């Protein structure tokens, strides 16, 4: 009887430790944050995407996620992983000038892209590391830069030629690593929808094909994730939507036409297509430029602002990297080169562009879908700003101490179980 009691006690202890170990494993969440660049909020219905719809049915879907202004790729990807408006994290546009550094930031310039001086805030991958977890990134703005003194534990230098299936397989391999090497937070980026949207417009057949290919990639990832016995949450986002530019004379203004007759020695101009920055110390001459631009025959196609005049809801204009004078194109109009304008009109080529004010055009609306053990099922929510994704993911990962951010967990907390 005594031996049986001892044996029963040992079995109970073993069982208890086994349950504890199992519970610890199951309670350690994982998040895959995916961006399909340029995936507009209505593409799922517009192009009938079965895998996106399956994820939405089983998880959470927003009517749209509102990008921060300007609705450009680099500022918004970095906003998603820092929870800060571009004005506050410092990556204020795809292209801009920093007078203190005397450097112009450009997304095509590898030296400045990898310069940590341009990046403020604490990205999710570093936040995760500070909380004794590992992080990984298969392409994301900022992930290839030593921000706050470190990189993600696993990351790749951006190379758009890397096949998309290879990116998916790499994520799965990370999740199959031993537990002490496995990243709890992974970011994953795809550019195919954005590229097609630019080249053919949001209504083009090639854009439809790209959206359906994105749907296949999502289906592949979900299938592979379901084969892994881990509590994995998938959060699907995009940085912005896409707005159609029709191939007609009135749709385009060229930079030489906009700047015609101005003294180029008195200012620096950086174009971003949907808007442009004027930098200059001569405030009197900048005021003169503003008056000239407002009286041009094409002035109904754009608006001109000094920083103090910018709409409050943009949360934009306090950073020194924003132009002292700012010209914003109205929806349907775009700032470009004479060559690109001529080509678009000659070929009658419909294009897609972004960067516009999300408050003026719904076309800038991005996507937000989430599915996994930490999210409710079959839930629809309204529009929200992309600054709130950061505290949401932090909460899923059990991180409660956050740096100063603009996002607020309370906005998306209702979607959590």
UniProtKB/TrEMBL annotation:
Superkingdom in the source lineage: Bacteria
Listed Gene3D superfamilies: 3.30.1360.180, Alkaline Phosphatase, subunit A
Cross-referenced InterPro entries: Alkaline_phosphatase_core_sf (IPR017850), Phosphodiest/P_Trfase (IPR002591)
A single GO molecular function term of this UniProt record: hydrolase activity
Protein name as catalogued: Phosphodiesterase
Species the sequence originates in: Roseivirga misakiensis
